[in-house]
Amino acid sequence: MQGTPPPTSPADSYTPTDRTVPTRSAHRASYDKELVHAILDEGYVCHLGYVRDGAPVVLPTLYGRVGERLYVHGSTGSRPLRTAGQAGPGLPVCLTVTHVDGLVLARSAFHHSINYRSVVVHGVAHQVTDPEEKRTALDALVDHVVPGRAADSRPANAKELAATAVLRLDLDEVSAKLRTGGVNDEPEDLSLPHWAGVVPVRRQYGTPLAEADLLPGVGLPGYLTAL
Amino acid sequence: MQGTPPPTSPADSYTPTDRTVPTRSAHRASYDKELVHAILDEGYVCHLGYVRDGAPVVLPTLYGRVGERLYVHGSTGSRPLRTAGQAGPGLPVCLTVTHVDGLVLARSAFHHSINYRSVVVHGVAHQVTDPEEKRTALDALVDHVVPGRAADSRPANAKELAATAVLRLDLDEVSAKLRTGGVNDEPEDLSLPHWAGVVPVRRQYGTPLAEADLLPGVGLPGYLTAL
Q1: Partners of residue A206 in chain B, C-beta under 8 Å
Q2: Which ipTM value was assigned to this complex?
């Protein structure tokens, strides 16, 4: 059996469904849990889609992950959170996270592309009612933005908790999609005099700008210098 | 009338609708065309939402802008492009573009936020059938990724054009939303010993990686050194 990869345990990957098997470029899809978690944990802004009056709505929002659950939050007055209700059937959503890694410039316009890693989660979001789960979710949201920050800020008080709605989305119907590598030009285009290659793209953090009214002696925390 | 801003001409801004007036943080919304165009032109990846079997789908995809029209493209075999059809009623979509500009770290977990600029476009996407419009749209898609690149690549041939479907979405029901500035902590939290401030976030391009088989003498084009 040399050369044959070990069979993937069902526990290691999400089960593909009709919605998570792409019609195009299926070789770029993955259901590997570790890969999905890594892509999710590198980000903090997702695009959350839901249906309102039969039409799609896509909004950028923060998210956090705790194990096999994602959390998003918002004001209790916001549309999707009101729609999800507290005791209702939940809100069908599609939550997508995308990282751009490179611009792929081919000699032909047709083969231009992007190197990227994305995760798409389909499911039904439910409002979190358990106070402990709500706190855990809010900590995860803050720690997704800056790991270590939740412990170094004042936790939400009762009034703030009451004003904040949290939605839970289980990682169940999930796929990742990736493009990596160089240019795929047609053989007959290789003799064209155009530059071709990949321009790497990264997220870069600038120098943190402290508020003017910090308490004396409060310096830049280690989790920020590590960014 | 000193101190009163000049009335906004309808030509300068999009007309707000029920869908584009946010229920929360309405002060962060804008309908200014120049601002919307600037946010759109700074990006090249959008998140496109549509409804499939009653459930939302959100996919990352490239886009381009030509005046008051956005274009997305894909294989003629892809789901949303098939659904949009060539002669049908079109595909209701929501197209969202988001730029993250900073991490806003407040002393309280509750007031943590993100500085961002986003544009949300609601509408019905239609397949482009006019060959000239299709070529213009594909050039715009390439030039959104790297301005100046479309003219320095081989244009699509007849076979490639036939394999590519392009969707048009008019900029009509559109809003921008922005958060800028520093931390908004509660007055009673200012005496807490936590660091607070904003961490700037930018998109950074790395050194372009040329394909190994470029023609001799083909150097890095000026539009890439300018990135």
Answers
A1: 199-202
A2: 0.93
